Amino acid sequence: MTRLLNLTPIVLIAMLASASPAVAQTGTVLGRGFIVVNGGYQVTGNDFEKTSTLRANAEDGSFTSEYEVKGGPTFDVGGGVTLSRRFAIGAGLTRFSRSTTSSLNGSVPHPFYFNHPRTVTGDVIGLSRAELAVHVQAQVIAPVGPRLQFTVFGGPSFFKVDQELVTDFTWVDSYPFDEASFGTASTLSADGSSIGFNAGVDVAYFFTQRVGIGGLFQFSRASVEIEGAAVSQDVKAGGTRAGGGLRLRF
Amino acid sequence: MGVSHRLRILVCFLFLATTTLPAQAPVSTGGRPGLLAVNAATPTELREWDARINQMVRARQFVALSSYPDPDIGGRTHETLAQYYQNIPVYGGSLSRQSAQGVSVSIIGNVFENISIDSAAALSANQIALRLAESTGARLVGDAPQLVIFPNLDGAYRLAYRATMSDLKTYIVDAATGSVLLTIDEIQTQTQIGTGTGALGDAKKMSTTQVAGGFRAHDQLRPAPIRTFDTRGSELALNRLLVPPGAPVEGDYSVDADNTWADPPVVDTHVHAGWMQDYLFKQVSWTGIDNRRGTITSAVHTGLINNAFFIAPPFGADGGGMFVYGRTTGGTPMTTLDVVAHEMMHGVTNASLVQRTGMGLLGALFIDRFGPTAVTVGGSSLSCDSASVTIAGRQLPMLCNAGRFVLVSNYPGAINEGFSDIFGIAAEFFHQPAGTGSMQADYKLGEDLAGLGAARAADAPASMVAMPSSLGTIPYPDHASRAFSFMAAIAVGTTSNPIAITPVPWVLVGDQVAVVPSADAGGVHLNSTILSHAFYLAIEGGRNATSGLTVQGVGAANRAQIERAFFRAMTVIMPNVPSMRIAALATFQAAVDLYGANSTAAVAIRQAMQAVGLMN
């Protein structure tokens, strides 16, 4: 995971550095490189839930945290090199980060009675969630005239996910202890990486031979096992993303 | 010597319980001159009694002991008044008046009339204490002996001292002669007879306190702390805890090294005490035993066989009362939920009465009726005037009235036991699923004592043998007409000058005497089933086998209404020395207070009390 991240900029730089200009009739510069910079929005939510056990009052209890990972803004940068008029290879880096909320639903053992759990509910807000994805793409380019260019792409993605997880919580109760209310939560950061895939389409309009703007629609997905201290959880990363931004080619 | 003269100086506190008490009218008990059992509920009666009480308060014949807001009904106030004569309390004279927005709603209690005696004591309190110490070998505990006006059976009154001694007894002593007029055993027992093995093996949670080296059976999570002592079979340790000051030592606590307790008596006692506290708190809004968060102390491994008891303050650990549990002859701990709840209800009864009236539910013999002049005992005919009985090696003459045997019962004691049975049952239904199996709730008491079985059955009292007798077994009564009445003997004094009486284990069956193993302190356990059966009928409904009357119960889903009414009756309304009928009226009044006169609960209780012969 760490090694992958360290290599990513190197790969990008290598690809950019190796690009050589070869302008096609359609405007595509064969053998040359290109850079895309996008702002976007990840539409797909990646909600997940985690059930944990707890031991209290001489009895096992449990709690389920439902993490609401909504979509949010993304930023990505990428580049590549054209291999022919129709094909290119590229790579991109996508960053997604946002604060998430976890709805906690706990079953807390009663201090006096077996099998008389109290239900505790509460929201834990401000849990951080970050996804960093490196997408390697094979691209099929479909130029439409000298300025407009459609690109369909796909390939493997390398995801790294950082997620703050609820590991424990406190509750408040008083005699006769038949009810309890949520107190505070303990959290820790868990992370993990995995390989998934990405696919999408890009539409670019070039004002000049080198500069243009474009729009992007991408779907990426990976299942990532994140781990922290004695905690692990499978989560989904990526999703449907739309964005747009600068297109440069040289 | 005439009967009236013989009885005039009878010093035991006797009432005629056979008097028919109209449900909603103040009435005299008739058989006990001077005693007025008050139950005023109609506007006219209340006006009359308000005026009369106010007059007596101004004359210092009644003193307001306490006034407090109703725990269940907003705007209601309860006032407890104690009767005094020349600044000396009258034993058993008390009134409970509840009012709403300053207007009286009910007045219940006892008033003693026509008191006229010299209030100057010939003997001092110190002299009484010394005499008692000499005669009992015990020492005075608590306050110095207090003067009381003690009512005689025939309407006369005697100036007496009330003193509690370290032998766990309270004595009423004649202030003129030093004679003991009445002995009150402070131990309220829950007797079980039988054999059995082991505990039930169920897993429970123990609320404990960690100390150096282990854990102590000391629950400090509940509002009223619970501590369970282990006297390890030491009579010395038990007595040290029972007798004031009842100072516990570190070694008294039940302890466990790893908080995984494997001692069934400790576990059951400690946990069930907590469960009963939970029941009281949740169902009837009562905190702990005394409703004041007082520590609840129990003792196990006491060496007690077939018994468990509650002893009220000033006895018990730290003078706060104590619950003492034994085991059956088969080794089964007498600590099942219903038994523990039963004992704890004794504590509640005592605490509530003491807080309201200054005294607990007082043990007193009521005259049930006058029997025949002659009976057959073991095939021989005995006339009352010549009959005697041997008790504890002493030959005692029988108490007669115009040559007729006097039959007595201790109804306050039976009420005490009945209410304890009721709340032992109620605690079961609160915590256990209904059913007939082990650890399931039913209307029987002590049914989970392995190898021993139930002692009493509120649902079908007559299905249980109360006592074997010389004439065969006698079932528990399900109706007032079947109440155990015991012949009485003169314990102190002579036939012409009876000073103190005691119930004799002779029960009249037709014109024959059935000799039973025990007089049960006047039938306190034996007659308890009349009230507990009414409790059952009020909930479940059904037909009383004796009266044939049918009760429309509130249904099991509404049992809390009946439980609350009974609890309120005991803790808010009940006077010190109630008859069974007064207890029934108090319970009905409680239901009316809580739910209204025409409510399902009030109707069910009225029908139930009528069915068991306690209301008209």
Structure overview:
The complex is a heterodimer of chains A (about 250) and B (about 625). Helices cover about 5% and strands about 70% of the residues of chain A. With about 250 residues, chain A is mainly beta. The longest helix of chain A is centred in the N-terminal third of the chain and has 17 residues, at about 1-20. The radius of gyration of chain A is 24 Å and the shape is elongated. Residues about 1-30 of chain A have low confidence and may be disordered. Among the domains of chain B are: about 1-185, no CATH class; about 195-335, Roll (Elastase, domain 1), CATH 3.10.170. In chain B, strands 1, 21, 26, 27, 32, 33 and 34 form a 7-stranded mixed sheet that branches. The interface between A and B is medium-sized, with 12 and 14 residues.
Helix and strand composition category of chain A: mainly beta
Count of individual helical segments of chain A: 1
Summarize model confidence as the mean pLDDT of chain B.
86
Instruction: Flag low-confidence runs of chain B.
Output: 1-31, 189-199
Q: What global shape of chain A is seen? A: elongated
The string of secondary-structure elements of chain A, in order, is HEEEEEEEEEE
* Biggest sheet features of chain B: 7 strands, mixed
**Helical proportion of chain A, percent range:** under 10%
Mean pLDDT of chain A: 86
Q: Tell me the greatest interface.
A: A-B, 12 and 14 residues
Question: Strand portion of chain B, in percent?
Answer: 25-35%
Rg of chain B over CA atoms, rounded to whole Å, is 23 Å
Strand order of the largest sheet of chain A: 1-4-5-6-7-8-9-10
Largest sheet of chain A: 8 strands, antiparallel, barrel
General shape of chain B: globular
Distance between the termini of chain A: 32 Å
Distance between the termini of chain B: 37 Å
| Secondary structure tally, helices of chain B | 12
Structural class of chain B: alpha+beta
Number of strands of chain A: 10
